[in-house]
Design a protein that fits this description.
single chain; 10 strands; 8% strand
């Protein structure tokens, strides 16, 4: 009997040590992530006492943070997480999965419920560390949605109440000022629509941003500093109407984002670049703004970057319009139309996926609710269960048929997206010898036998082909003047009966009768 008592006591102490060890593991792991130390976090996972499923999931998430690669096939499903993950890691699973979905999709309907599930599990476990991780992500979502003030305030107050370390306190202050900036920007738009923008005044003191940047804990937080400078720049540029200071803060944000170890910082670099270009446009430095905006336009074509491209082409169009370059304005408008169509196609594809996902979740939930009611009665419950199964089977058959139609539409959408991508006009021509010819520097093209001579500002390149074929690949500012010539109207100086005079002292024969209307 004594031996049994000591054995039970040993098991109790041993299990207590395991629980405390695991608690220390995930706390240290989260702390390293907050500091941006992805490599150290990976080492902690490798040495962790958790099972293979948890380790695999954490390593996939860390790889996504570092590289942006999402291994969907290797990532555990929600069912696996529910069955095999400890409660602590279930909460982590939902908010980390939400991070990945947020990075991959544009619609907030995907990731927002995952953050709520993570928060719910953390609350039930009374785990303040994980509760704050979920709250932080919800606050980040609501800082761009300043309409729901009450819900935001409740999340913020809970976050502040749980924030025990200096990093969380710093982020809490950031989200507070960020929410105010977005709310003020929205208010300024309302004033502008009503035509009373002169009456608009902002109560935001820029000293708040400087205090955040000067905080001791912020010195090594490059991602945090980048965020603050980004928001500081918006405040200066939009609310204070000081584009020079706004540009300076956007440049600093760009610098810190480039230093960050997170892969999604690369996307933020582009956003900071676009904001810088917008500030230059507001300062009427149109040529400089065009250069900055063009540097951002060739970023990778994921759905979130398409929304950024739409902004870029609109801003470029405004700059060209101010410089009275009509052809370039038309080109930017045409590109914006392409991007708008791509975004609508992507959105449709996401909605199809969302409908299928919601339908499956609803069916499972409906079955569970009805089965629980059936357990209360034997004979009658059996009859009700039979009816329910028939109804569920009928609904499943109908939904299966609908899902097949949705899948067909989804495949058609993907094919249309691919065809649209091929239509997007690039800012350069790549020759067979891999030489890049920038369209802005291309003055004119001359057909010589089976070859085309491309005359640029600095040199002349040859490519085998027909003049009619290459014209189809060029933007509208390139027009034919002769059966053997294509002219870039952006380089046009003078047209008369003697000839066409172009920049860089280039001169070619006058336009033929067939193509004379291109120069009216």
């Amino acid at each position: 009997m004594v031996n049994v008592f000591y054995a039970l006591l040993f098991l109790l102490l041993f299990s207590g040590n395991i629980v405390s060890l695991q608690a220390q593991e995930y706390k240290t792991f989260i702390q390293e992530l907050k500091l941006g130390n992805i490599e150290k976090a990976s080492q902690l996972v490798e040495k962790s006492s958790q099972g293979k499923a948890v380790k695999s999931f954490l390593l996939i998430y860390l790889d996504y943070l570092k590289t942006g690669n999402y291994q969907q096939q290797s990532f555990p499903t929600e069912e696996i997480a529910k069955k095999s993950f400890p409660a602590t890691y279930k909460s982590m699973y939902y908010y980390m999965y939400g991070d990945i979905i947020k990075g991959e999709y544009m619609d907030s309907d995907f990731f927002y419920p995952l953050y709520l599930k993570a928060l719910d599990i953390a609350e039930k476990e009374n785990n303040k560390v994980l509760e704050n991780e979920a709250l932080k992500r919800l606050l980040h979502h609501f800082q761009r949605n300043p309409l729901n003030l009450k819900l935001y305030e409740s999340y913020k107050n809970r976050f502040l109440k749980n924030a025990k370390d200096s990093i969380n306190m710093l982020w809490a202050k950031y989200y507070d000022i960020s929410f105010k900036v977005h709310k003020e920007c929205l208010r300024k738009k309302v004033y502008k629509k009503k035509g009373t923008q002169k009456d608009f005044t902002t109560s935001i003191d820029t000293v708040v941003f400087q205090n955040l940047l000067n905080a001791k804990v912020a010195t090594k937080q490059t991602f945090f500093k980048a965020r603050v400078h980004q928001m500081f720049g918006i405040c200066q540029d939009v609310l204070k109407e000081d584009p020079k200071r706004g540009k300076s803060n956007f440049e600093k944000a760009q610098q810190y984002f480039e230093e960050s170890t997170y892969h999604f910082s690369k996307k933020e670099v582009v956003r900071a670049t676009i904001n810088k270009g917008c500030a230059l446009k507001l300062a009427r430095a149109y040529n400089e703004a065009i250069i900055v905006l063009k540097s951002a336009v060739n970023f990778k074509d994921s759905i979130k970057q398409l929304t950024e491209k739409r902004v870029v082409y609109q801003q470029l169009s405004d700059c060209y319009d101010s410089l009275r370059k009509i052809d370039s304005v038309n080109y930017c408008i045409k590109q914006k139309i392409y991007v708008d169509k791509l975004i609508s196609e992507y959105t449709l594809a996401e909605k199809i996926y969302s409908l299928d996902y919601d339908n499956r979740i609803y069916t499972i939930k409906e079955e569970k609710e009805k089965l629980n009611k059936d357990n209360q009665m034997l004979f009658i419950g059996g009859i009700v269960l039979l009816i329910i199964l028939v109804l569920v089977y009928y609904n499943w058959c109908v939904s299966k048929k609908e899902n097949k139609n949705l899948e067909v539409k989804h495949e058609q959408v993907i094919e249309e997206i691919k065809s649209i991508k091929k239509l997007v006009i690039q800012d350069r021509i790549v020759l067979k010898n891999k030489v890049h010819v920038l369209l802005d520097e291309l003055i004119y093209i001359k057909a010589e036998d089976h070859y085309l001579a491309l005359h640029t500002v600095n040199k002349k390149e040859f490519i085998r082909g027909k003049i009619s074929s290459i014209l189809k690949e060029l933007p509208p500012n390139f027009v034919r003047s002769h059966r053997s010539y294509i002219v870039n109207k952006n380089h046009l100086v003078k047209v008369d009966n003697k000839g066409i005079i172009l920049k860089e002292n280039k001169e070619i024969p006058p336009p033929s009768r067939t193509y004379k209307n291109n120069f009216i």
